[in-house]
Design goal:
The complex is a heterodimer. By secondary structure, chain A is of the alpha/beta class. Chain A has 25 helices and 32 strands. In chain A, the strands form ten sheets. Chain A has a six-stranded mixed β-sheet, covered by helices on one side. The chains are: A alpha/beta, B alpha+beta.
Chain lengths: 852, 195
């Protein structure tokens, strides 16, 4: 809104720079207020991650502040019955009554077994508060959310190789981009306003874009080539392409494979590395001296990348040799039958990608001669959200690794593996290990030691995973099945909506009912909040402070060359009614429970506050106070809030060349051979046997493979004949934005948002017509939808976009709009998860019939 | 204005920016991204077309207006004087681009609750008048650019004068063979598209 319009009304316009929380990406924005109300949100031109731009969601979301269904007061449930469509019969209570009730129950649980508390938020800048609260309380059950939905598998692949949580592409230098089941650069993924601009400009300059996806998504619409693929078969296609690249064409970056991967390590017939008798270091074959040596020996003249060698009577081969031989079984013609992608397209794509990568070329950057690999593949949930999600994603990433494009100009890159106060390590085997600052959770490598589960997310059973948050319902529903000797009792939850975002709603409702006390922090009463016993009115992010920096650098600073920048989230106005920020409420609860000192002490170690600005552990600090101390530590002692009066973006310095292009500088090796999974699987076996549960050990293998999803096969005549496929739209965020009346208008006008998409051949077979109302049924759930018959969806699929189909009684705009993809999914179970990464399989078959 | 179709990713940030800027009533958009499908699977696709008033040199909407509410400003921006407009709909029928709407329901967001717009200078257009994109003339008069241009994350909308100004667009239009929509209508649009 332009200032002249405000001034006409006698108001003055106030602009507060802050960070958007419309999704998880932390774009810099300026919140415009007049007459005590927010009248607009504009982009912050000084924000390095968003350059003054703002997306539809960020622009529209200030309406949420004034939605008539906003929760303004604490309330308690009047109706003890819980269920979908059941009126909770809310009764207004005071904050004191609410906190007294919660504290008393928390104290009981803490005395009995603190692990009975489960904490659930998807509010990244607030994790520093909720995690500390959980740890001070004594539970490890924090961070239940659907973060697995996008990334338990693809994050896993990036952490092991790029030493970074997220992947990205050097769009400025890249000439050939493959987006594989993802919408990077199209406002539905990482650092969106940065990548969208870079990618569009690069396309204008001739960058080629190929998109592999069952549905013609927004990036597929922009692509030079859209390759529709059958869902869940990404690994099969990638393996065939690897075979074409390595065995048919024989084109790969041998220099990179020798210097930066474990491809030269010798492996024994049992799959383990050949190790030095004393030092236990992996051995390599020195062709110059015709002898095996530890991988880091100074005198290796010519390490063998390929070959079989007899060493002390044992026939060993290099890991690359094993990999190369292994690939020979993945015939492109066989993959065509699995993926429906013609073998010729796989060959052409492999050739184009490999040629575009210009293996062996270099480029001069700031006086350094760096490898130049202007071709890159990015992957995310499309390949990840399947039974074989981790290895399928890794197979795709191996195409990047084979051309040596990791973190070098033009190539695929991780999001800031090296930063001002973090860097990856190299372990004793010479392998790259992600910095603790980035990993935060379990590192995928080196793996954990598996043990009997103690945490309801069962991560102890997935020793090489990063997090397994999607598995909480398995632990909550049946703790005893997994040897867990306590029961979930209290759920503290906010800004995540498992009833909408996970799986079949009835099943999730039963999971929520396992808790004696559910406390929901809520701005709206969504489907999950309808199950709450106590409802606390949460502040909108325009009404709250956050820990600093709000854009946690593990994922939310643009990678590649540029600057280090840090955002301060700050409030633009007071919240209405009795709303309070959930982060402050946690500290109230810590104080009331007498665990404030433990809470503060944990903060001292993980909030990045220097000794000069340390907290008084006995004092109830505010989030603002903590943020100020963090900013003084990171930016300098002379930081004041005046420094964030014009922009919330604080720049500390330019990146070094090592930070911009770490691939050319780091020493740690990237795996092409997952040797660690042999022992991880072996260590897990006795625990699984003791539990007497079914488990899929197929992913615990050093050589990447394709694992079919449970519902992949279709029997002739079975009317459950279409696989559902989900995709984001750029003007809706997860399950949180559908109540916005403006975004609803755009969604209603768009052909691919509130409809379900079916190919004409499938529609004809079923006698269905465009625009008809249909019933969509899986073996696990059902929903209604409006049919859009279209050529831009795979004929074996039904496209169901976004996270739609709300039903909560207060969500009058969102209610009954679109179709719920998630409610068609079963609750997680061993058959339906990737037992390596914990990612939940979303491949489900449906039948679609005319709605009577 | 030049619209770069290669850069547009269909995100609708422009649609919302316009919505906020003008507080348009429900389902009335002064600009939005239209979508078209083409081809047969697997050689099918979709394409995005950001649509708005073309502010034609020869605007069919202006001469048909019985009250002279529709007019062309000296700088070429085609506007509607809402005080003069009687909502007869002649201009709506005349526009070959389908870029004018009649306000049937002037209510904007959240009819039943208090909003920022209940008492705001940026009042919604009154009931019964014709409305359309005004190129954010209030911004241009202050040296700014239209809201859709400012917000576009991919710089798909480029605004300026054809000749003169900071960034003359004539050269770019020629370089990329920019074309207006429906040239056979003889409207001489000032919104051109490049691909």
């Amino acid at each position: 809104m332009y200032s002249d319009k405000i001034e006409k009304n006698g108001d003055t316009l106030t602009s507060t720079p802050t960070v958007c929380l419309g999704c998880y990406n932390c774009c810099g924005v300026k919140v415009q207020t007049a007459g005590g109300k927010v009248v607009d949100v504009i982009g912050d031109k000084e924000a390095v991650n968003s350059h003054g731009y703002i997306c539809a969601k960020g622009r529209a979301r200030f309406l949420d502040l004034y939605d008539p269904s906003r929760v303004l007061y604490p309330m308690k449930r009047g109706n003890p019955e819980k269920g979908i469509g059941v009126d909770p019969e809310w009764e207004r209570i005071s904050w004191d009554e609410a906190l007294d009730t919660i504290t008393a129950r928390l104290a009981q649980v803490r005395e009995n077994d603190p692990r009975g508390l489960v904490i659930s938020h998807f509010d990244l800048p607030g994790y520093g508060i909720s995690k500390n609260f959980g740890a001070a309380f004594g539970t490890t059950n924090f961070h239940w959310n659907r973060a697995d939905y996008c990334g338990a598998a693809p994050h896993w692949a990036h952490l092991m190789t790029n030493a970074s949580f997220n992947g990205e592409i050097d769009f400025e230098e890249c000439r050939y981009v493959i987006l594989w089941g993802t919408q990077l650069g199209h406002l539905a993924e990482t650092i969106p306003l940065h990548s969208a601009g870079e990618m569009a400009a690069a396309r204008r300059k001739g960058q080629k874009l190929v998109v592999i996806d069952p549905f013609c998504t927004n990036p597929a619409a922009k692509a030079d080539q859209w390759i529709p693929i059958k869902p869940g078969t990404d690994g099969a296609m990638a393996l065939a392409m690897l075979n074409i690249m390595v065995n048919e064409f024989g084109t790969y970056d041998a220099e990179f494979l020798i210097k930066r991967t474990n491809g030269i390590y010798l492996v024994q017939p049992d799959g383990h590395y050949l190790r030095h008798a004393d030092s236990k270091k992996p051995m390599v074959w020195d062709q110059g001296a015709a002898v095996a040596k530890p991988f880091d020996a100074d005198d290796i003249s010519d390490p063998a990348l390929e070959g079989i060698f007899e060493i002390d009577g044992v026939q060993c081969q290099t890991a690359f040799n094993a990999f190369k031989e292994h690939l020979k079984q993945f015939d492109a013609e066989a993959a065509e039958k699995i993926t429906t992608v013609p073998a010729q397209i796989m060959r052409d794509l492999t050739r184009e990608f490999t040629e575009a990568a210009r293996i062996g070329s270099t480029i001069e950057v700031d006086g350094h001669q760096l490898p130049y690999r202007p071709a890159a593949i990015h992957f995310k949930r499309g390949s990840g959200a399947h039974k074989g999600g981790a290895l399928g994603s890794f197979a795709i990433h191996l195409l990047n690794i084979m051309v040596g494009n990791l973190d070098v100009p033009g190539g695929q890159r991780g999001v800031n593996p090296i930063g001002p106060f973090w860097a990856p390590d190299t372990d004793k085997d010479g392998m790259i290990v992600v910095a603790q600052h980035i990993a935060k959770y379990n590192k995928p490598y080196p793996p954990q030691t598996p043990k009997m589960p103690e945490t309801l997310d069962l991560h102890e059973l997935l020793p090489a995973s990063i997090f397994t948050r999607g598995l909480y319902p398995m632990g909550i529903d049946n703790p005893e099945k997994f040897g867990i000797d306590y029961k979930p009792e209290i759920l503290l939850i906010g800004r995540t909506n498992p009833m909408m975002n996970s799986h079949n709603a009835e099943a999730m409702g039963e999971t929520l009912k396992k808790f004696d006390l559910q406390v929901s922090f809520a701005t709206f009463i969504d489907e999950t909040a309808e199950f709450a016993d106590i409802l606390l009115p949460d502040a909108h992010d325009f009404e709250r402070w956050d820990l600093f920096p709000a854009n946690d650098p593990y994922a939310f600073i643009a990678p590649g060359p540029g600057q280090w920048y840090w955002h301060m989230r700050q409030p633009s106005l007071e919240g209405p009614g009795e709303t309070r920020a959930w982060t402050e409420v946690y500290m109230d609860l810590a104080e009331r429970l007498g665990i404030l000192e433990e809470f503060n002490n944990l903060g001292a170690s993980n909030w990045g506050i220097s000794d000069a600005h340390r907290l008084d552990p006995t004092k109830r600090h505010t989030v603002k106070d903590i943020a100020e101390r963090q900013a003084k530590t990171l930016i300098g002692d002379d930081f004041t809030f005046e420094d964030v009066a014009r922009t919330s973006c604080l720049i500390s310095r330019d990146k070094t060349i090592e930070e911009a292009y770490p691939g050319a500088f780091v020493e740690g090796r990237v795996p092409i051979y997952l040797e660690h999974l042999i022992d991880a699987g072996a260590a897990l076996k006795p625990i699984i046997d003791e539990l007497g549960i079914e488990w899929d050990f197929r992913p615990y293998t050093p050589l990447v493979r394709h694992i079919q999803c449970d519902e992949f096969h279709h029997e002739e005549g079975d009317e459950y004949d279409l696989l559902i496929v989900n995709f984001k739209v750029p003007f809706q965020t997860q399950s949180i934005s559908q109540q916005n009346i403006w975004l609803d208008e755009v969604s209603r006008a768009n052909p691919y948002t509130y409809n379900v998409m079916m190919h004409p051949s499938a529609a004809a077979r079923k006698g269905l017509e465009d625009g008809e109302r249909v019933l969509v049924e899986s073996h696990h759930g059902k929903d209604e939808g409006t049919l859009k018959v279209t050529e831009i969806v795979h004929p074996e699929c039904l496209g169901i976009p976004a996270t739609l189909g709300h039903w909560a009684r207060n969500l009058h705009v969102a209610a009954k709009k679109g179709t719920s993809f998630n409610t068609l999914l079963p609750p997680p179970n061993v058959k339906r998860i990737d037992t390596l990464s914990g990612q939940v399989d979303t491949c489900v078959r449906v039948r679609v019939t005319k709605l009577n | 204005m030049i619209v770069d179709l290669q850069k547009c990713i269909g995100c609708n940030a422009c649609t919302i920016a316009c919505k906020v800027e003008h507080n348009t009533p429900n389902d009335i958009h002064y600009t939005q991204v239209l979508e078209y499908e083409y081809g047969e699977f697997p050689n099918a696709g979709r394409t995005f077309l950001p649509a708005l008033c073309s502010h034609c040199e020869n605007p069919p909407c202006v001469p048909v207006c019985p009250t002279r509410a529709s007019y062309t400003r000296d700088d070429g921006i085609v506007l509607i004087d809402h005080d003069r407009c009687i909502g007869c709909g002649a201009c709506i029928l005349a526009c070959p681009y389908d870029q004018r709407s009649r306000v049937e329901d002037e209510r904007t967001v959240f009819h039943d609750g208090e909003t920022v717009f209940e008492n705001n200078a940026n009042a919604a257009p009154p009931k019964g008048v014709a409305v359309k994109c005004d190129f954010c003339y209030h911004r241009i008069d202050q040296g700014g650019v239209p809201a859709c241009v400012e917000t576009c994350p991919t710089d798909a909308r480029i605004f300026g004068e054809w000749d003169g100004g900071a960034k003359p667009l004539r050269k770019m239009a020629a370089q990329y063979n920019a074309k207006g929509l429906l040239p056979e209508k003889g409207t001489e649009p000032n919104v051109l598209y490049i691909d």
